[in-house]
């Protein structure tokens, strides 16, 4: 083999060695996104469209506050992604949660999500998603809405709620497009600006699961 041929071969091998981890990571992310990006059925889509219309008034955060939703202050992001039981979700954000304590304990109702999720856009809060949230105490069968079973039971997302507050929840990205799927817990296009009230943490953990 000529010298030039050997140099060319070594160069190709070096490029392949560098590219291989990147290709594996991309494949892993695609698999994660595909697992949670199943398109809604026509019946689900009709329910989602109805909920989007019913909740559109909350594009104004002050309207949400008048109806009992109050900010938990922090912007939540999970930059590493992870797994929650059988759900694998991509690195991304959950945004700023507005919680309605008066709805906690009620069964999921499309017109009354327990949580509204906003995204900071410069000096504006933009409505991005809704979350249906049910405490786990006394629940033997996970609740459902939009043909989806709420995820959990999981520990509370400290510090915006006590770690001991076990619950089921389902994020539904009714307004902000989510490449990982409308029912994904995280949104890879949702990011929190650096700041005192931004929380970047490990993914939530299931109740009873081994924690490191």
General description of the model:
- The protein has 212 residues and is α+β, with helices and mostly antiparallel strands.
- The chain has one domain (37-200).
- Helices cover 25% and strands 28% of the residues.
- It contains three helices and eleven strands; from the N terminus they run αααβββββββββββ.
- It has helices at residues 3-36, 42-54, 61-66, and strands at residues 70-78, 82-84, 87-89, 92-99, 115-121, 124-135, 144-145, 148-149, 151-154, 167-172, 198-200.
- The strands form three sheets. Strands 9-10-6-5-4-1-11 form a seven-stranded mixed β-sheet. The chain has a two-stranded antiparallel ribbon with strand order 2-3.
- Strand 5 (115-121) and strand 6 (124-135) form a beta hairpin.
- The radius of gyration is 21 Å and the shape is globular.
- The chain starts with a helix and ends in a 12-residue tail after the last strand.
- The relative contact order is 0.17.
- Mean pLDDT is 82; it is low at 5-9 and 11-37.
Notable traits:
212 residues; 3 helices; globular; 25% helix; 11 strands; alpha+beta
N-to-C series of helices and strands: HHHEEEEEEEEEEE
Helix content: 25-40%
Runs with pLDDT <50, length 5+? 5-9, 11-37
Radius of gyration using CA atoms only: 21 Å
How would you sum up the major sheet? 7 strands, mixed
Spatially, the strands of the biggest sheet line up as: 9-10-6-5-4-1-11
Task: Give a brief description.
This protein has helices at residues 3-36, 42-54, 61-66; strands spanning 70-78, 82-84, 87-89, 92-99, 115-121, 124-135, 144-145, 148-149, 151-154, 167-172, 198-200. It is of the alpha+beta class.
């Amino acid at each position: 083999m000529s010298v030039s041929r050997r140099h060319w071969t070594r160069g190709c091998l070096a490029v392949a060695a560098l590219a291989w981890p990147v290709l594996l990571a991309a494949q892993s992310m695609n698999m994660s996104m595909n697992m949670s990006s199943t398109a809604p059925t026509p019946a689900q889509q009709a329910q989602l469209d109805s909920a989007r219309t019913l909740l559109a008034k909350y594009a104004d955060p002050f309207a949400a506050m008048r109806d009992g939703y109050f900010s938990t202050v922090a912007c939540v992001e999970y930059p590493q992604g992870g797994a929650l039981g059988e759900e694998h979700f991509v690195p991304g954000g959950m945004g700023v949660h507005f919680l309605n304590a008066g709805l906690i304990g009620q069964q999921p109702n499309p017109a009354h999500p327990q949580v509204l999720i906003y995204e900071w856009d410069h000096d504006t809060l933009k409505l991005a998603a809704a979350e249906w949230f049910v405490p786990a105490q006394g629940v033997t069968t996970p609740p459902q809405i939009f043909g989806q079973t709420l995820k959990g039971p999981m520990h509370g997302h400290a510090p915006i709620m006590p770690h001991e507050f076990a619950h089921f929840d389902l994020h539904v990205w009714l307004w902000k497009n989510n490449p990982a799927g409308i029912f994904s817990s995280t949104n890879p296009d949702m990011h929190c600006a650096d700041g005192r009230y931004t929380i970047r943490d490990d993914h939530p953990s299931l109740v009873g699961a081994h924690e490191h």
